Amino acid sequence: MITTAPRGTQDVLPQESYKWHFIEGKLMDLARRYGFSEVRTPTFEHTGLFDRGVGDTTDIVQKEMYTFQDKGSRSITLRPEGTAGVARCVLEHGLLNNPLPLKLSYLINCFRYEKPQAGRFREFRQFGAEVFGSQDPAVDAEVIALVADIFTTLGISDIALELNSIGCPNCRPAYHEKLRAYFAQHIDSLCPTCRERLEKNPLRILDCKNDSCKEVAKGAPLGIDNLCGECADHFASLKERLTAMDIPFTVNPQIVRGLDYYTKTVFEFVSTSIGAQGTVCGGGRYDGLLETLGGPSTPAIGFAVGLQRLLAVMENDGASLGEPPACDIFLASIGQGASVEAQKLALRLRRAGLHAESDVQGRSLKAQMKYADKLGARYTVVLGDDEVKTGQIKLKRMDDGQVEETTLEALPALLCEK
Ligand code: ATP
Ligand code: MG
């Protein structure tokens, strides 16, 4: 047991980690170009934050949270998502006093007790971004443009934007009544959780993963047909802006998303290439969240991209994931004196920004060269007593065996140019 990672978790092995650096570097760079600053919040929060912030009728809160009592008898939860913690941080530090809109991004690990399967883990990584302080549909369009740009920049073509509007506190009560009336007729087909949701939050039933609930939900009245004038205008304006920016989308009236406090815009980016868990990104507007957490009424919108799913789509699409880092040079040595010089030279090369290795195990020259080969070193140099005395060395390019004469002194600068 102790030599096996817990179910639903993953090791990122050394030969894979460059892919994560590549993806995360691109994400952070794009977010920067769109004006987002990174925020880092704790891995765990008070459980109450998620009860309130995610909503106590959601699957996340009802079934998926890693909650425990700490030694001071506080109820603590490992974050199942990023938005609640970021919203808490914004309120705690008065970040809304900055010029608005406030744009924040984050890269985090999330924890959900789910049934592990392809694309669904118990610990997973998310990139997310949130904008606070504007209810203008232009902001919705900008946030969606960022996500669309992420996929384009990463070379993903097999992904589609699905959009919906789920209304606001003005239009929702009447819509909830219609949903209640509809689901009450089908109550026998609903799972026990959804029967409870019927009174409290019938919208949640539309997001249930239970097959029988899903079947019933197909015939339910649609939020999009029940929007108030303001929400309908907002949605129309968003669609207009997306069209103006050439960002293709389809309206999917079934999308409701997993948080209780979503209002108006909700969206997903879905891939068909990675099986059942095809939603790579989910997002939406949550104009009610900050007030729910005790802050001032503040409109906001955000999204989160699941990085394991993103990586799977990229691998499926044959998109570039960068290169595994290569060893620039291996410094072989013969004898104790040369070995010391090789180590000194490695130090200079590393300080010049190169990946240099020298023999640190007293191996034979043959064994050293074999090792250099396994490392995939681009160049090698052999240092013996003569090289140390004269400073003259032979730099060998490994892929074609070409040899170049140079000096110990000139090597770092020469290699930096290659
Ligand atoms: P799903 O409907 O697949 O359960 P969700 O609605 O619970 O997704 P969000 O809370 O919106 O997902 O999270 C945003 C993104 O995070 C998802 O689109 C997905 O890419 C990723 N994600 C969510 N849960 C998991 C998980 N258990 N394992 C891996 N990635 C996940
Ligand atoms: Mg989920």
UniProtKB/TrEMBL annotation:
InterPro entries referenced in this protein's UniProt entry, alphabetically: aa-tRNA-synth_II, aa-tRNA-synth_II/BPL/LPL, Anticodon-bd, Anticodon-bd_dom_sf, His-tRNA-ligase, HisRS-like_core, HisRS/HisZ, HisRS_anticodon
Domain Aminoacyl-transfer RNA synthetases class-II family profile: 30-324
Keywords in alphabetical order: Aminoacyl-tRNA synthetase, ATP-binding, Cytoplasm, Ligase, Nucleotide-binding, Protein biosynthesis
GO molecular function: histidine-tRNA ligase activity
Keyword Protein transport attached: no
Pfam hit, one: HGTP_anticodon
Family, per entry: Belongs to the class-II aminoacyl-tRNA synthetase family.
Protein name per the record: Histidine--tRNA ligase
Organism (species): Bittarella massiliensis (ex Durand et al. 2017)
Phylogenetic classification of the source organism: Bacteria, Bacillati, Bacillota, Clostridia, Eubacteriales
